[in-house]
Amino acid sequence: MDFKKFISSLGLNLNNNIKQQNKTGDNIIQGNQFAENIINVNFDSNNIAKMQEMIELSMVGVNSEIKEKILPIDKLISDGKNQLALKEYISIFESEEFQSYSKNEKFLIYNGILNCYVNLNASETEIDKWSIKIEALGDVQDSHKYYYVKAIWKYNNGDLKIAKALNSKAISIDPNYINALSFDVLIRVRMKTISYEEASKELKELIRHDLLVKDISRIYGILGDISLMNDKFDESFEYYKESNEYEKGFAKELGKAISLYHLSIKKIRPDGLVDFQNIDFELLKESQSILERIYENKSDDFIGHSANVFLTYLFNIYSLTAKFDKTVKIFDEVREVLDFSNADITRLVVQAQVTKQIYDDEVFSHLDEYDVIKYKSFYLEICEEYQQAYDILLPAIEGKYFSDKLLRISFLNCLQGLRNYSDYLKYYKKFKNAEIDEVLLMNYIEYLEKSEKYDEMIEELHRLKECLRNPFITVAYMKTLRRHNLYNELDDFFKKLDEGVYSVIEGNFSMVTYDRLMSYLKRGNYSDFYSIYESLDMRKMREVERLILKINYYNAKGEYSNCGKAYFELYEHEKNPNDLVKAVQNMIIANEIPVAEMYLEYVNPMEIDQPEIYYMYSAMVLRDRNKLNDAFNKLEECKAFVTDLNSPF
User: Fold this and answer.
1) Which tens digit of pLDDT belongs to each residue from 329-377?
2) Pick from 503, 564, 509: nearest CA to 538
3) Do you know which InterPro entries this protein is assigned to (predicted)?
4) Which one of 92, 372, 559, 639 is most buried, by most CB atoms within 10 A?
């Protein structure tokens, strides 16, 4: 099976929580594909480790030496490095000097440890252990911060009423405590006891010119949170951006990425699905860029809720853009700390793995029945184990999953792979309905092509072009036109592509552009070839396709020196020695003999398709160097490979 034909989905489901496409969703690849949804994770910066309470030091009653120890730890927490911060705090707690600390100073250490454990999603036992130590101190100077940290812990665990009560206690102790005041608004939004407009107004009224920078940053961060909760993605992006400008942080960057992700969805269909042509892939790329930057700078605290939210979005973007190798790579790096109870991440990982022909028993063990059928059958299909895939799919198709479009396509692919065309036609007729299904129709066109029923195939292609919307089926349609040299249809296709009637995802831009230009070359349409090639943004092209187009451009122009150099570039990239021989050939034609001679030094004649060509070109170079005896000796060597050799002299 051609992996380039893999497609992620036709429609994407927008829900409040991440859910797999429903069992009857439209999704496919040219042959097989998986449904992945537009995702909407409950996210707020207070629920992310790096945005939790940062220890604020009261200047009253705290030894200056202790302040010097705690301030760098405070910075670690603000940077989201809670494991390191916890290690430093525990070191202070276990030191001999700790016993001489005042009650207020001990509170700072205990509450710092508690804060780290809350950020790290520690067990209730661990939280209780340090809570007991704090409460045993009695009245302390900054007790409001303790209640605030406990409120965050309860909030993170979904106990909103208790979180509000604890946070209210913090406010009653210090009515000016910005963290608690802004957090109170967030809690009430989550409890739906206050509207978005009321919450925004309250938070903005908290902003004063005399506030600390980090307090202003926190308020804007929570404005971003409540905007995100209410699907106001333009506003959430701007608020997170503003918050980040006051004080940089992991959660604000993640909030920006999530906002951009949702902003990339331009239009939702009435059935809740999103067509690929209604995704702004430029905005999606910006979201991906931020997420990748976060991952590159991740700390040891990359666990728990923050990792699950982060990876769900990043892996989903990779799925939408068919960058499965990236998902596999990151998963291999974080699998030891990944929470497999997150069904969405598990599906995205399995999807990427099977696409790369990886079958991972551990990950598969976390899938439900439907997903096991779907992904295992696809894995077997791409491994061309069609009978095994058929044995899995037949009972599913004949049973409760008869209406599932994805399994239908997989099943038809298996029947094609088994060359069981009688059953293929039987089931195709069962699956077909009055409304044209582009995925099913493309699969049928593949069957007609393999069966060499070309007239019927062309007739069905005419039907298909009227309903194209899936960008992956669009590419499959184009490939079929090109394979059969249907140039009038190709010209119409590219016209509609330019007009925006058809669309392809960014990941397929290079392939489509390459096929377009090669179709022009094949029929001698050099003007269009030159025009598009010369205006092309080569940064968007895959390297092999860029180099082949470059070779053809210079060859068509008769610029053989540049053509030879391009062939050498292709050789360096692909390591195909036959490309090296073509580089030599072009340099000889261009009369650049020294360069041809240099390229020849890289050639091993036993590695190329026609070894005699090496000796011919070597003789030509030697003749040009006026080394005629050596040239004739090379020709003598060439006779071992070919007997009807005409002298190049």
Assistant:
1) 999 998 887 778 888 889 999 999 999 999 999 999 999 999 999 999 9
2) 509
3) TPR-like_helical_dom_sf
4) 92
Residue 472 has pLDDT above 90, yes or no: no
Residue 49 reports pLDDT greater than 70:
no
Tokens standing for residue 186: 């967030």
Query: What number is the average pLDDT over the span 202-206?
Result: 95
The secondary structure of 102-163, three-state, reads CHHHHHHHHHHHHHHHHHCCCCHHHHHHHHHHHHHCCCCCCHHHHHHHHHHHHHHCCCHHHH
Spell out the residues 6+ positions from residue 201 whose beta carbon is closer than 8 angstroms to its own. none
The confidence score (pLDDT) of residue 240 equals 95
What's the length of the chain?
649
DSSP-derived secondary structure letter, 622: H
Question: How confident is the prediction for the chain on average, in pLDDT?
Answer: 84
Query: Cα 133 to chain center, whole Å?
Result: 45
Which structural domain range is residue 56 located in? 45-317
Question: Is 399 a member of any domain?
Answer: no
Half-sphere exposure in the Cβ direction for 138 (13 Å, CA) = 2
Write down the H helix ranges in 137-232. 143-156, 160-173, 178-191, 196-206, 213-229
Whole-number Å distance between alpha carbons of 604 and 271: 61
**Residue 246 belongs to a domain:** yes
Domain count, the chain: 1
Digit-coded pLDDT (tens) for 52-87: 333 344 434 556 678 788 888 887 887 778 888 999
Q: How does DSSP assign 368-392, residue by residue?
A: -HHHHHHHHHHHHHHTT-HHHHHHH
Mean pLDDT of 135-144: 93
Statement: residue 307 has pLDDT above 50: yes
> What distance, in Å, lies between the first and last C-alpha atoms of the chain?
49
At 394, list the tokens.
């037949």
Residue 509's H or E segment, with its range, is helix 509-522
At residue 158, φ and ψ (nearest 5 deg) are 85, 5
The answer to whether 62 touches 104, Cβ cutoff 8 Å, is: yes
Percent of residues, the chain, with pLDDT higher than 90 = 62
- Confidence (pLDDT) at 127: 95
The conformation of residue 169, written as its DSSP 8-state character, comes to H
Q: Is residue 278 part of a domain?
A: yes
- Report the percentage of the chain scoring pLDDT > 70: 86
Is residue 150 within 8 A of residue 166, CB to CB? The reply is yes
pLDDT at 389 over 80: yes
By three-state DSSP, how is residue 294 classified?
Answer: helix
pLDDT band at residue 539, thresholds of 50, 70 and 90? confident
Q: In Å, how far from its chain's centre is CA 40?
A: 16
Q: H helices then E strands: how many in the chain? A: 32, 0
Structure-block tokens of residue 591: 């009369």
Q: What is the CATH number of the domain that holds 52?
A: 1.25.40.10
Q: Where are the beta strands (DSSP E) in 426-524?
A: none
In order, the DSSP letters of 299-349 are: -TT--HHHHHHHHHHHHHHHHHTT-HHHHHHHHHHHGGG--TT-HHHHHHH
pLDDT of res. 273: 65
Q: Which of these, 93, 95, 56, 59, lies nearest to 78 by C-alpha position?
A: 56
In this prediction, residue 24 has a pLDDT band, given cuts at 50, 70 and 90, of very low
